[in-house]
């Protein structure tokens, strides 16, 4: 009788472990838990002071990218942002932190540029992906400052971000790694 009870307990434990939902397509409760974990792990990004772009950021940009004739600068709460067009005609945004150091760059991308495994997974579970806005974020590995996109801070890593709709039509942002792993990143406000 004891062996049967132990066997049943183990069987239930295995079934319960397998029944856990996949974090990629998590329920509302799982999303809340992910947000809570992110908040606990978050390293506070230092806010910038003032409204003028720092001279340190401009000098570092010159060092990083050279003389770009069409650079436009802006400043938000956390980053100085330089937007320019590179020699290949690609529009790039470069983000600089409190110390004027490059945090990373973002470039517009497309659904077709995502890894094939990610495309298949997105097609299976989401809608409005064909013409969806896609951003590729290229992290500066030598700077430990985390980036903030869509109002969410995330760890240093190169990733794609795509705005799609879930099966219920709610707008969400997915994070896609260069290896093709797809995960929920954040919800977008409904229009």
TrEMBL record:
Residues 21-42 are annotated as: Disordered. Gene3D superfamilies: 3.10.450.360. SUPFAM superfamilies: BT0923-like. Residues 1-19 form the signal peptide. Residues 30-42 have a biased composition (Basic and acidic residues). Keywords: Signal. Transmembrane segments: none annotated. Coiled coil: none annotated. This is PepSY domain-containing protein. It comes from Chitinophaga terrae (ex Kim and Jung 2007).
């Amino acid at each position: 009788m004891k062996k049967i009870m132990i066997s049943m307990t183990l069987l239930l434990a295995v079934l319960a472990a397998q029944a856990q939902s996949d974090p990629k397509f998590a329920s509302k409760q799982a999303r809340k838990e992910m947000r809570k974990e992110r908040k606990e792990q978050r390293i506070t990004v230092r806010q910038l002071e003032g409204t003028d772009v720092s001279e340190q950021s401009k000098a570092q940009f010159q060092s990083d990218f050279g003389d770009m004739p069409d650079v436009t600068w802006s400043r938000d709460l956390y980053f100085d942002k330089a937007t320019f067009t590179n020699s290949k005609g690609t529009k790039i945004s470069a983000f600089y932190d409190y110390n004027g150091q490059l945090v990373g760059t973002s470039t517009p991308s497309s659904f077709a540029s995502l890894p094939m495994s990610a495309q298949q997974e997105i097609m299976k579970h989401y809608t409005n992906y064909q013409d969806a806005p896609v951003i590729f974020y290229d992290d500066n590995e030598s700077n430990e400052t985390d980036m903030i996109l869509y109002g969410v801070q995330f760890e240093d890593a190169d990733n794609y971000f795509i705005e799609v709709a879930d099966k219920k039509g709610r707008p969400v942002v997915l994070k896609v790694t260069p290896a093709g792993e797809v995960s929920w990143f954040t919800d977008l406000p409904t229009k």
